[in-house]
Amino acid sequence: MQTLPDASSIRTAQFRQLTEALESLRQERLPADRALDRFFRTRRFLGGRDRRFIADGVFGILRRQRFLEYCLQDGLTGTPSASDLAGLFLLTQGWSERALARFLPAGQAARLSDALRQANQQSMSFALRHSLPDILAESLIRDWGESEAEQLACALATTAPLDLRVNTLRSDRDHLRARLFESGIELDNTPFAPHGLRRENRAALFKAPGFKEGAFEVQDEGSQLLAALVDVPTRGRVVDYCAGAGGKTLALAMDMNNKGEILACDVIGRKLTELARRARRAGAHNIRIHSLA
Q1: Angle (CA) 3 131 81, round 5°
Q2: Which of left, alpha, beta for 220 (phi over 0: left; psi -120 to 50: alpha)?
Q3: How far is CA 50 from CA 9, 41, 158, in A?
Q4: Which of 213, 220, 232, 212 is CA-nearest to residue 195?
Q5: CB burial string 162-188: b at 16+ within 10 A, e below
Q6: Residues pairing with 288 in the sheet
Q7: Which of these, 35, 73, 160, 208, could form a disulfide with 28 (CB 3.0-4.6 Å)?
């Protein structure tokens, strides 16, 4: 289960901002992280604690959306309201109906509590219980068996740790880890990626020492391992045919020690523009960018 603050520590304004963020995501034709970033940029007054509650709530609701909408389907016409989704999600996180009634009309809180209780009494499919598309749920069970699939589905519903990749063109893992520790950001080495650091909860890494000078990139360990598996030749010529904004491209450039050449291609120009900006910050000079559009 995702851990959210107890209801007693949440203000009415924070709950309202959570529902406004959900409404904003519905209107934006953007990936959820970018839409939420835009939402926060228009609300500079929100503090770090407010932003954590809103972000954790939004992404928690997205992970559980199919189950939440199933609970709300009786008597519902159209799309569930943001306050219904937010309230029901918080009930699944251990909030009581009484606690929720601080933020919603008592009748609405009672209705949501009844909806959750009735849903939990029903027999539902693996896919519905874990808010997965049917085809993915079937694939997990077929490939891994019911017990392993259950563990994988539960893992998908949890908040991922925050991983970063140390850019060895600018720093090394031990030095950067110590530097970030001095600024109050404690990280552990990733278990498999040789240049990775990990933090279990969020931190303002984009404002941390070393980021602006390109000492690290935020990148999950899986992507770091994929780049390492390529085993690029130091002085070779490499084509990254779907480079996007360049996360793995930059990892390849680092592994080549800024030698040889990487031809980074994509059909989306704005992603290549972002790649060029990131490459300059990282000090990666062996990347040549080519638009396929």
Answers
A1: 80
A2: beta
A3: 11, 13, 20
A4: 220
A5: bbbbbbebbbebeebbeebeeeebebe
A6: 263
A7: 35
Q: Are 152 and 140 in contact (CB under 8 A)?
A: yes
The residue assigned the tokens 């079937």 is: 138
Nearest to 55 by CA among 33, 80, 38: 33
Type of residue numbered 144? W
Q: How far apart are CA 265 and CA 251, in angstroms?
A: 15
Distance of alpha carbon 268 from alpha carbon 284, whole angstroms: 21
Cα radius of gyration rounded to whole Å, the chain = 22
pLDDT tens, the chain, 293 aa long: 456 777 777 888 999 999 999 999 988 888 898 899 999 999 989 988 899 899 999 999 999 999 999 999 876 656 889 999 999 999 999 999 999 999 998 899 999 999 999 988 888 999 999 999 999 999 999 999 999 999 999 999 888 899 999 999 999 999 999 999 999 999 999 999 999 999 987 777 888 999 999 999 999 999 999 999 999 999 999 999 999 999 999 999 999 999 999 999 999 999 999 999 999 999 999 999 999 98
29 burial level (CB within 10 Å; 0-12, 13-18, 19+): exposed
List the beta bridge partners of residue 287: 262
- Euclidean distance between CA atoms 293 and 271, whole angstroms: 12
Angle 191-220-195 from CA coordinates, rounded to 5°:
50
CB count, 10 Å around CB of 214?
A: 19
